[in-house]
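Researcher: Structure for this, please.
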Amino acid sequence: MKINLLILATAIAVSISTPARSQNDSIKKEGYKFEVVKENSATPVKNQFRSGTCWSFAATSFFESELLRLGAGERDLSEMFFVNHSYRGKADRYVRYHGAYNFGPGGQAHDVLNVIKKYGFTDEKGYPGLLPGEPKHVHGELDAVLKSFVQAVVQSKDGKLSEAWPAAYGAVLDAYLGPLPDLTGGNTRNPIPEYALKAKFNPEDYVELTSYLHHPFYQKFIMEIPDNWSQDLYYNLPLDELMQVMDNAIEKGFTVCWDGDVSDRGFSHAKGIAILPEISVQSLEGTEQSRWEKLTEKEKNDELYSFDRPVAEKTVTQEMRQADFNNYKATDDHLMHITGIVRDQRGTKYYITKNSWAADSNKSGGFLNMSEAYVRMNTTSIMVHKDAIPAPVRKKLGI
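Model: Predicted structure, token format:
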């Protein structure tokens, strides 16, 4: 009797698992199939190349989309215009803190916004910001020289700082990136281009939001991340409401400037996918593309890393996010530009994301799709137009 029951149970299990296995094999065979839910206007993908300036490329792309949305036409803005100005402000802050401050090529979306408010913006032709003799951005030497310069200033043995160092530091930047254009015309007029003003572009309309438990919700705080060197304020929202802001923005025709962690094994720009599998995976260390894409031979053969079909993903809670932030597992190591939403054949939501690693860097034209679970876990902050925020959330924030 026991033998017969065992045979029966086995037969039932086979009859149940065979269709499921066939379905999984079918999904694996066809790979990812995406259906566009909403896709908003974006300018062509650019290439940050060997520079740590993703923050400028992402935010510049975001503001290019804003100009498109506002009817100002397609513009190719200069990322290095924002970089040159920001690096001056960063050096000033570093010196004023006697060197006890972060100094490096990284930054945040608000660095671009702060430059716009003070100096406006110009196009790529007006300020390409390329090193002499270089067709692409190569900043290894520049970064090292700037860091050595500010360190020498704060370690001066002269008893006081000279008045010459700011001009000398600016001359170094101009030698590498080119002299900055004067957009004010020598007077106090608004430095924002006329075409942007006519389209009613207002830099005061943009805000940054985040979601963490170590500060009260619906209030602003200075986020404790190294690249927030200017100590700007972020509005703090519960995770579900932060996701509502992103979804509402895309639905209403806005785009989102995204800052987050891409060091997880579930991120593959080469495959055009970022996912958060149910099975825990080891994180990568470091912060640039050469490190993000490294896999061992074993991992390359592991089905988990093949990105050849949709997989079950984690359910992300506020507490999980906070734990990863607290223990440095999730850091703000990359900024990109979210422009739309797609769904795969399982119905899973993904965010269409424009990267800055060149259009020919993958088969998706330089874009990738980040799953909802991945975004919930790894978003450090976002920048949006205040009108992209749902009315109930805006009321809670007092915006």
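Researcher: Any notable elements?
Model: Confidence is low (pLDDT under 50) at residues 1-24, 283-288. Residues 35-397 form a domain with the Cathepsin B; Chain A fold (CATH 3.90.70.10).
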